[in-house]
Amino acid sequence: MNRHRMLSMAAAALLLLVTIVPASSAQAQSHARAAGTAAVPGTSLSIDELYQHRSLIGTTPEGYSWSADGKRVLFLWNDEGYSFRDLWAYVPESGERTRLTFLGKDVPPETEKRGIAEAVFLQGDRIAFALDGKLHIREPDGAIIPVEQDKQAVRQLALSPDGRHLSFLSGAPFDPRNRVTRGGILWTRDAAASRPDSARRVAGEDDPKVYVSSYHWSSDSRTIAFELSDDRAMPERDIYHYAKGELQNNRVIRAFPGDETTRTQIGTVNLSTLETRLFERPDPKHHVWGFGLSEDGRRLFINSSDLEVKEHVVYVYEVASGRREIFYQERDPRHIRPDWRVAWAPGDRGLIILTDRDGYLHLYHKETAQSAPRQITHGEWEIESFAVDGRSERVYFVANESHLAERQLYRVGLAGGAIERVSPSTPGTHAPVYSPDFRRIASFFTNDMTPPELFVLDPDRPDQPAQVTRSPQPEFSRQTWADISYVEFASHVDGTPLIGRLSLPANYDPSRHYPLIVGSVYSDAVRNQWGGRRAHPTWGIDQYFVAQGYIVLNVNIRGSWGQGRSHTHGQLHSYGETDINDLESGVRYLVEQGFVDPQRVGIWGSSYGGLMTIMSLAKKPGVYAAGIAGAPATNVWHAYPSQMWIMGPPDGPDMPARYEAQSPLFQVQGVRDPLMIIHGTRDPVVLYSDTIALAERMIANEQMFELVTLPGANHAWASDNLAQTRFAFKKMVEFFNRHLTPNP
Fold this sequence. Notes:
Layout (H helix, E strand, L loop, with lengths): L2 H18 L4 H10 L12 H4 L11 E5 L6 E5 L8 E6 L4 E4 L16 E6 L5 E5 L2 E5 L5 E4 L7 E5 L5 E6 L14 E6 L9 E4 L6 E8 L5 E8 L5 E8 L2 E8 L9 E8 L5 E4 L7 E7 L5 E7 L5 E8 L5 E8 L9 E4 L6 E5 L6 E5 L7 E2 L7 E7 L4 E6 L8 E6 L6 E2 L7 E6 L6 E7 L2 E8 L8 E2 L6 H4 L5 E8 L6 E8 L9 E5 L20 H9 L3 E5 L9 H5 L8 H15 L3 E11 L1 H12 L6 E5 L13 H4 L9 H5 L13 E6 L7 H13 L5 E5 L11 H19 L4
Parallel strand pairs: 37-38, 37-39, 39-40, 40-41, 41-42
Antiparallel strand pairs: 1-2, 2-3, 3-4, 5-6, 6-7, 7-8, 9-10, 10-11, 11-12, 13-14, 14-17, 15-16, 17-18, 19-20, 20-21, 21-22, 23-24, 24-25, 25-26, 27-28, 28-29, 29-30, 31-32, 32-33, 33-34, 35-36, 36-38
């Protein structure tokens, strides 16, 4: 794609956004240009001003839940931009939005507290919600009644289909002998009851290492299917660290590749008799990706795979007898992503299966174990998730049919045929929650120019969305934000088509060569949504870098979702090889197009992104002038067992050579360019001790590097707390400014 076409795409996206989302910053930027202020390269705000207790981009609306009649939707939000979320409701017919609780009014603004975690409608106007791990009921008059206060970590609230019972999970009873606690006990209580303690225990054990992790109601409300997880065979590890002036121990259940993992069983409980049945699988250590009872309650599917996700198997059981059959099976020795989804077809006529058997993730209908799967959707694009509307015999789904970086909403009949888009024409990303009758969709919507908001959509009138929330603070619209666009280029190694998300200064000058920051690098990093990635709060530092005169690039590396099976296959056994070649291809493309000064290219990422950063410096000296690795996965022998999807098992015939080839710890001798490492000492995901091992090796090699230690910080070091976020991001800015010299 040439530069003119790339920038034209960005302009078209902005025009669509202005017409449909009036509160966007695109409109503010057009006003600024009309006023003659377009010379401002980006936001004028500092790191401290971008990251505040009162968020500039507002508080994201979360936790959507529909009433049984589909006439109201609950959501959790703070309209002032603080972190504490109260309970709100919206009525699509009238457009009325109402705040239902004011629990955050007495919470100090500087408190980093998330507030209500989830909520569901009961009968009438009664609402159950979880706050600080405790269950509460909001009565129609607004009174808040604490209930079940002896139960901890209340979560996964659900109302039975007949509306008579509220179900939830809670933590196991506290046992001082167990330093490692998880726990999950399943309870039900009369949804109409106001008594404080009336819940009935229906599944789960007192042992905190054996817990109910998820569950589903049957359509007739007589049975609950549940997932029982058992961690008793898994190793426990002590993570010692100093914080608050003394030695601390963060003891965790933590397996490495080859260790015992969680054993999973799927069961059902009859709510009349409390009789429980557990359904056997050939190997209880194998992954479970989903399960569900048929509408008539007579059959149960389990969507599963082996530990390396190379063999996908869907079992169907007769609930009464426990008899099992293999309903669907497929093996792909190069598979690395468990993106499969399964649901019952309307009328229990077999299963709808999301699989990439034709090369892309599409929907199939398989009526019996003996029949061949019939493909419902087709094309060189992929489906992320779906939901079945049994009444209309249609399937609603999220897909990137319009553009790789987007997640739009569609529907298609069970018989297949033409698909119908049911989200607006605005580019961006939707995360839907469907009303029970599928007449409305509550969507978490965002795009490159719009922070997340709640929209309610009518699938029959998709271009008339109702915007329920307006979250950004007034200062947001007064800033000039980066221009976001997308570039297409080929791998310089094998020609594979790749795509990148490009952030340019608002006053980009094509006659100049800019310094470039590649990152934060990760898989699934190219998305049309505010900040690019929701998992990390990097939107502000990206905008800050662009305002300082940098270009920022994200690349949809091999192994990422959205470009088909062959695209992901390239990442097998290839940490620190194919992925970093894809990143380099993006750098080469921008240099060839005249965007970038090849002497001023930086790279950064966290976790797996930290692995890619160090590997890029080690294997490609001179391509990058500097790199920052946050919580870097330097030793894949200490990865989670799920990383075997890509790395393979640790007892293969080519070990230890292959694991060492994928581990920066054993490749770091090639690093010649400036490197900064940022890591928290409490991290249970990527061990701080692995960073120390890498540091010791670099010191022995007389290699220079900088280490920023965050005492007591977790794996998500960029979002633990505001002070730490500001400190770490300022260290990053100082490091890149020193080595890349941004344009004035």
